[in-house]
Amino acid sequence: MPNPIENAIRKTMTAGLMKLADFNRERMAEPAVPNPFLTGLNAAMDQELTLERLAVQGRIPPGLDGRYLRIGPNPIQPPATQASHHWFVGDGMVHGLRIAGGQALWYRNRWIRSRAVSQALGEPEAPGPRHFSDTVNTHVIGHAGQTWALVEAGAYPVRLGPELQTLAHDNFGGSLQGSFTAHAHKDPASGELHGICYEATNPDVIRHVVVGVDGRVRREEPIAVKHGPSVHDCMITPQYVLVLDLPVTFSLSTLVAGYSFPYIWNPEHQARVGVLKKDAPGSEIVWCAVDPCYVFHPCNAFELPDGRITLDVVVHATMFAHSKNGPDGGTSAFERWTIDPAARQVTRQVIDATPQEFPRPDERLIGQPYRFAYCAGLQSDETGTFVGASQLIRHDLHTGARDVHDFGAGCHVGEFVFEPARPGAAENEGWLMGLVVNAASQTTDFVILDAQQFSGAPQAVVHLPHRVPAGFHGNWVPSAPAG
What we know:
By secondary structure, the protein is mainly β.
């Protein structure tokens, strides 16, 4: 890890570069067409709402008691220029529905209180330590009895209250030294969170971070890399953490030019998957070559009897090669990768070439052989808006079957999450939950599907009278048991 002198030098250099970037950003010409990540389905909400006793079509399962939470970028003020703005850097806004007793008790949306958001709202600054940045907008999870909003590369997590209010910026009680990750995966055996974390200011190191069941970091192990790769997600198995070191890397010239997200496609960077035993030194990682591509999100992974590892992922041929404002439009595919640590190679098999994203399994089976994967359809899009399609896709990885739930023309599906119907339920026995936006009416439905009747009518639909902007990730966070 960098020593205090190196940290001081980097901090000074970073401050100077940020001033130059700000100078150039202010002089950017506005684009000929509006930034697609500030308009249309991505246009921000301009107020915080509290809607109570929402109408329900169908029947909410009475056993569901908790909150469905989803987060995404929602700029509270227009950026300096639309040309410089990137989807990934907008102020965070969390959306939630409280479900209990077969009712939708409330919907709320709340900005995550960064310093800039608090200032814009005329509020006192939220408590807690800050890191390189304090904009948090990518994921929201429950862990150690708390609700956490997450982002990668720059900020500490943010603790949220039961009504989505910002409680504090929190580096896990002072136990986290660097930034965290947007994607921390819970080990079903131990209950610990595993993530791969990186700093935008340090291109030479990423870190394997483990957060215990007590909400404190017990491991923050450095792993040497080159070029400052953007490692959005990882995956775990019983023995290993799998590291995706792929050809999207930090670009100093992009930063200095004034663009807010300084990561671009870098064909000179070796694409590889790292296999590291969960408690081994970072120096023992085994790197396995893979054909150049980019992965935001793996679905799951499991170990094979012969020592190889299966990893299921959504794959993009390139990323940030054509757009400075958000993910490249175009195609993606759901693939199965077979990692051979002995041969240091990865072989790729396309499961489904239909454009899709946001793959999720039954989280109880993370790291284990599993059967079903659920993905949100993605429009084949030439404008670079990364827009959800109308279809939710279920992959049966045992039979090869592909089932579709189509929400209809003009509807745009986001990530759906699976919640088992009861303790000990079978893998596909439970509920799929997510948000679906109707572009024509500018409204949103919170939809609950019976996973065993996947293509049939929804189990329940909660209607929201406004459009929830296209966002990133979320989860079902059950209520704590009484007593």
